[in-house]
Amino acid sequence: MKISNICCIGAGYVGGPTMAVIALKCPKINVMVVDKNEDKIKAWNSDDYNEIPVFEPGLKEIIQEVRGKNLFFSTDIKLAVEQSEMIFLAVNTPTKTEGQGMGMAADLTNVENSAREIAKFANNNKIVVEKSTLPVRTAEKLKEILELSNNNYRFQVLSNPEFLAEGTAIKDLFNSDRVLIGGDDTPEGEKAIDALVDIYKKWIPEHKILKSNVWSAELSKLASNAMLAQRISSINSLSAVCKKTGANILEVSEAVGADSRIGGKFLQPSVGFGGSCFQKDILNLVYLSITNGLPEVAEYWHQVVKINNYQRKRFVNLILEKFENDLSNITISLLGWSYKKETNDSRESASIYISEMLLAKGSSLNIYDPKVPAAKIKVDIENRLILQDLNSKDRSQILSRVKIFNDIYECCSNVSVIAVLTEWLEFKNLDWQIIEKQMKDPYLIVDGRFIISKNKLSNKLKLISI
Questions:
Q1: Whether residue 242 lies in the annotated active site
Q2: Which of 184, 212, 240 marks a domain boundary?
Q3: How many domains does the chain have?
Q4: pLDDT at 1
Q5: Whole-number percent of the chain with pLDDT over 70
Q6: How far, CA to CA in Å, does 134 sit from each of 138, 182, 300, 438?
Q7: Side-chain half-sphere CA neighbours of 8 within 13 A
Q8: Contact at 8 Å (CB) between 115 and 128?
Q9: Lowest CB count within 10 Å: 54, 137, 304, 382, which one?
Q10: Same-domain status, 345 and 460
């Protein structure tokens, strides 16, 4: 089956970079990325390539090369579906906030609505590719929606989970560890799988393209993220033990990671993992285990999230211990709002939850991040306040204690505490002599990312690592 036109529904952190690379590597295929968010599409089409909504090293240059040639961004879902033989679903699948599975199960509203639109506008047989992270057996639900809504055409549903790490997404797409494609074990299903394999073969060695059934592909995505998050929680739990015993967590991490059976990746101690996938996928796996009568399995994976939450609270407690649990007259500088370096994505960032806890203790906050816009930071904070059922007056009063800066040295001026929450390279290279002159007693640096060198600090500046 030859594919000449691809549509991707969802122009976010998955859809945008993935389709840009496909367009670059497959110049004979037209790729249209569609989204209902007009502002997002306008940003993708901006003449100023620094304004594209996803910051990812290397992405801007690809967009410059292929946009308008064989890569297009639009809000016209009808046209995109009609023209495409293959349709990727890369819409958001947040954790449910109400109803059955609240707080754990994935909310599939966006996916299901997209399936209905595909069925509505389909004018021939289509291959539908799950790119969003989805619960096991979602493909079955998608196929049911597609076939019930449109019985004139045949739909093949594939699972092709993304294994990208934000900050290195383009590198990951160019040189993937593996590409996983799950489909039905039928002649039609095998043809659909082969059609997607042919696209990836343009730049991915065929031995790295793995085929499976749909359910295995869906579960593999959840399992991979759960395993990676588990490593982070494991090393973070040991950082607490190190604090109590006098061991050095960096030395422990190096020693453990030197074992070839373990390796050093995802064993860096930190203030905790964030992003759109890890917590959501683990909770999804927890819910899947519960609903299948596996409570011990559910509790095992749930503990990974619990340790992550504990690590955030432990970080805040390091500050509270220095001020006898009262931060009402203390201004704290938070360096970093994105959940990791080299991205402007702040979803589930540790900074959000840490700022919430610090504000609850009365502190004022100065915030700086090199890529996350001030408007997004304000929305992140306000959304947490809304969840606390605070009225608008109380929310305004709390928000008045938050200032967002475009200059890191201004952000660190007249503060008593500097908290490092994202491992941006910029934070490693600060001129601490300048900062020291601007700070107020007690001159405390709390490093949640282990990137500040004691050798660069005077005796006046006290450094605490989580």
A1: no
A2: 212
A3: 3
A4: 78
A5: 100
A6: 6, 13, 21, 48
A7: 29
A8: yes
A9: 137
A10: yes
Containing structural domain, residue 439:
326-465
Residues written for the chain: 466
Closest CA to 11 of 90, 71, 64: 90
Give the tokens for residue 340. Answer: 């990791």
Distances (CA, A) of 383 to 91, 279, 349, 399: 21, 18, 13, 11
Distance from C-alpha of 22 to C-alpha of 30, rounded to nearest angstrom: 9
432 and 340 in a single domain? The answer is yes
Tens digit of pLDDT for each residue in 333-361? 999 999 999 999 999 999 999 999 999 99
Matching residue, tokens 């959940």? 339
Name residue, tokens 């859809």.
Answer: 15
For residue range 87-143, list pLDDT tens digits in order.
999 999 999 988 999 999 889 999 999 999 999 999 999 999 999 878 788 888 899
Q: Where is 271: in which H helix or E strand?
A: none
8, 277, 411, 412: which is the annotated catalytic residue?
277
Least Cα distance to 127 among 81, 90, 168 occurs for 81
Record the tokens describing residue 49, joined without a space: 């390539």
Q: Distance from CA of residue 437 to its chain's centroid?
A: 37
